[in-house]
Every structure is written in C-alpha cells, then in structure tokens.
Amino acid sequence: MLALTENVTEIVKQLAAEVPEISGLRISAEADGQSLSVSPAEQAQQDDQVVEQDGATVFIDPPASELLADKVLDGGVDEQGNIQFALGQQT
Fold it and tell me: For burial by CB atoms within 10 Å, which of 24, 31, 62, 86 has the most?
C-alpha cells in the first residue's frame, strides 16, 4: 500500500483546511498506463483505495493502486508556491 511522508500529509491537510470542498488528493492512472495524475478531490470514487495517514487522505484508483503498492509519496512546495510530488521505493 502507498505510504505518505510527513511532507505530503502536511500538504494534504493544509489543502483540505483551506478549501472546504477538498477532503484529500486523488491519484489516478492515465490512459497510457504508465503516467499518473494527482488532483484535489472531495471524495473517493467507486473502487478507489483510500489511504489515511496522520490526518491526510489520499484516494487511489485501482490501476494506480497497483503501480503504487510498494511506493512512498513525498512532496514539497517550491518558491512560487507550486506543489511538487515525487515517488520513491518503500524500504
């Protein structure tokens, strides 16, 4: 199952606090089956895996869930305020 770093949990919690209609992030696989998209989400869609960690919620569609099963999601905010995400291998 996808793990979240402390950085990502703080980003997700801050987004949810600032925008009431957002309860978490949703990760979905693109049509090519190799690329992923991340977007704010109000709720899980049918069949989404739900990862809750330290007060942050991430919804993952089934194809993305397979790709991310052994990964850790990290993130940060750059100088312009843009959120950047990165994946790593779980140890």
Answer: 24
Q: What are phi and psi of 90, to 5 degrees?
A: -70, 145
- Give the Å distances, CA to CA, from 88 to 50, 51, 74, 80, 81: 19, 17, 8, 24, 22
List helix spans (H) across the chain: 6-18, 62-68
State the CATH architecture for 3-69. Answer: Sandwich (2.60)
Give the pLDDT confidence of 13-24 residue by residue, as tens digits.
999 999 889 999
**Beta strands 36-41; 24-29: pairing state:** antiparallel
pLDDT reported for residue 2: 93
Residue spans per domain, the chain? 3-69
Q: What SS3 state is found at 60?
A: strand
Q: Locate tokens 């949810």: which residue? A: 16
